[in-house]
Recover the amino acids of this structure.
């Protein structure tokens, strides 16, 4: 493993655990420093408030010259998050800069939650509701917030129930 | 952080990766974290190695920024348009980094002693009878805050020896830190030789500026009489300007001569930077020749040769941005290139190690993954829980007890959040 990338990730972790920005946390998997778990608290005074959204960050040797892949593990209803949890966020693609660290990435995603960009929608339905029917948008987001508090198995059971309800 | 740490992560934190967070926070050691951070490259977060400046003024390690500029021609910090032709060595910063690298460990030790002293003092306030005497080394001052155990003794030593101290301070004006404090250059006398900060040659103090301006070629000049600066000022200027016009070529523009093999061995002539090559205009044989010129292997296909040579140019040029005495020898550079190729190969080819190998498809079953890492996520949730007033969190759920675990720092963004919330509320009203 490249020592540069590894040393950089260790520093990212030191910084994130010593001086954490509010509402975010993250740490590498105990057995693999290239794989990080993270949690973003839904920002206060947004529909996402109090949600505990789990994320997975996957780094490779090219970090920090290339961004990590970031993916929500929790189900999201957000104009810029795909159904599979992947994000549409410029700084994780063409606007990446090697000066960003994990704290910066998580903070950006946190601000994306209270400031969606409906012009580059990854979830067309969420983008449409966000523009046209805020009430329904908030209702759908609140459902994901409540889901984020559940254990993964419960979430799965709930999704399955919803799926069968929708099909039936 | 105590909530997130488990055994493996404690290992990570204890690993020998120096970081600004090694220092106590600013309420105990004001500025130390910031100082350590200021002397680190914002790309690799190491202490600057061969710092270079872009037109916008941002500084990076030469190798870091050269790698970035290959991908994108903009400053990694401010995104202003940039290219490697803008790069200028930041010699002053390099010597500051060198000095800090030498002082860091000592400073860290002092800072930690200070933390211990403060906690000891705090203990003494609770149990005033305990070991009061031992903490007092000097004087009968009654205020504990003023008393510094380490400070006074070292200061006193310095004050008792004013002469060497003065000399040291003066010699610091030369950008290079003298290795041998026993022979400090005294600027007063013109005959004294000092080390050139660029080529390390011994040069008369009086002509050091001309020497550097002439790309370290001018080593000998009749030293003008030092005591009559006023009358000779005109002459001096015309000499400097004339000399600069004749000799002031920038080393990276001397492309006509092709002679640089071992950068560290050359004292009188600053080696040239390697130019970027437009490989697509070259035949295979010429690309191989380019590699041969620098003693590099020609294994693999044309694509591999080009990548190897590109990386070599980057490593080589970044090496030239180091102080000559710190430059790596060509053999060492070749090893660095080899190491890079090995790690590239592991990253792009299907390595055998299962973990951290490939990005996509790493975690396919999201539910299983979350279940397996349930305990970690529970800790992360508690670590991320924002601090807020008890009433606010009570309105939403019953988890008020943990609310205090959160950290501060939220204040600045609160403004944004509330304006955003206002926007949401407005839209809600409209919809």
């Amino acid at each position: 493993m490249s020592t540069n990338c590894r040393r950089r990730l260790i520093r990212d972790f030191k910084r994130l655990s010593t001086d954490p920005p509010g509402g975010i946390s993250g740490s590498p998997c105990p057995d693999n420093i290239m794989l990080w778990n993270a949690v973003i608290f839904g920002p206060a005074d947004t529909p996402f408030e109090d949600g505990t959204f789990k994320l997975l960050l996957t780094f490779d040797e090219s970090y920090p010259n290339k961004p990590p892949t970031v993916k929500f593990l929790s189900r999201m209803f957000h104009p810029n998050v795909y159904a599979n949890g992947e994000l549409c966020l410029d700084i994780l693609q063409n606007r990446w800069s090697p000066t960003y660290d994990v704290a910066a990435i998580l903070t950006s995603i946190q601000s994306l939650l209270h400031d969606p960009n409906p012009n580059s929608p990854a979830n067309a339905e969420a983008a449409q509701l966000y523009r046209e029917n805020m009430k329904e948008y908030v209702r759908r987001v609140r459902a994901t917030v409540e889901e984020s508090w559940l254990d993964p198995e419960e979430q799965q059971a709930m999704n399955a129930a919803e799926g069968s309800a929708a099909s039936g | 952080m105590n909530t997130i740490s488990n055994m493996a992560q404690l290992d990570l934190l204890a690993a020998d990766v120096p970081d600004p967070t090694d220092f106590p926070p600013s309420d105990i050691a004001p500025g130390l974290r910031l100082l350590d951070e200021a002397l680190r490259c914002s790309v690799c977060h190491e202490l600057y190695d061969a710092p270079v400046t872009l037109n916008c003024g941002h500084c990076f390690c030469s190798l870091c920024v050269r790698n970035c500029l290959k991908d994108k021609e903009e400053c990694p910090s401010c995104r202003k348009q940039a290219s490697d032709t803008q790069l200028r060595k930041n010699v002053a910063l390099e010597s500051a980094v060198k000095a800090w690298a030498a002082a860091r460990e000592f400073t860290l030790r002092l800072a930690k002693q200070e933390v211990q002293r403060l906690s000891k003092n705090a203990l003494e306030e609770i149990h005033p009878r305990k070991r009061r005497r031992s903490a007092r080394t000097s004087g009968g001052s009654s205020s504990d805050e003023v008393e510094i155990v380490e400070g006074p003794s070292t200061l006193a030593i310095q004050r008792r020896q004013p002469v060497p101290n003065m000399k040291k301070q003066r010699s610091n004006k030369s950008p290079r830190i003298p290795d041998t404090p026993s022979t400090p250059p005294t600027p007063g006398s013109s005959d004294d030789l000092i080390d050139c900060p660029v080529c390390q040659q011994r040069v008369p103090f009086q002509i050091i500026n001309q020497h550097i301006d002439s790309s370290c070629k001018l080593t000998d000049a009749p030293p003008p009489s030092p005591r009559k600066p006023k009358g000779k000022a005109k002459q001096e200027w015309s000499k400097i300007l004339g000399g600069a016009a004749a000799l002031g070529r920038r080393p990276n523009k001397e492309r006509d001569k092709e002679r640089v093999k071992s950068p560290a061995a050359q004292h009188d002539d600053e080696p040239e930077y390697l130019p970027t090559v437009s490989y697509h205009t070259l035949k295979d044989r010429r690309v191989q020749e380019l590699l041969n010129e620098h003693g590099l292997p020609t294994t693999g296909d044309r694509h591999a040769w080009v990548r190897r040579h590109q990386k070599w140019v980057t490593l080589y040029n970044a090496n030239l941005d180091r102080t000559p005495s710190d430059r790596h020898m060509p053999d060492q550079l070749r090893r660095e290139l080899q190491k890079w190729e090995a790690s590239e190969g592991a990253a792009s080819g299907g390595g055998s190690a299962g973990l951290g190998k490939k990005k996509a498809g790493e975690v396919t079953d999201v539910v299983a993954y979350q279940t397996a890492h349930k305990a970690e996520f529970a800790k992360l949730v508690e670590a991320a829980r924002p601090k807020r007033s008890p009433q606010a969190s009570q309105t939403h759920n019953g988890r008020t007890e943990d609310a205090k675990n959160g950290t501060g720092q939220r204040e600045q963004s609160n403004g944004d959040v509330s304006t955003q919330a206002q926007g949401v509320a407005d839209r809600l009203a409209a919809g």
Summary: The first strand of chain A starts at residue 24 and ends at 29. Chain A touches chain B through 74 residues (CB under 8 Å).
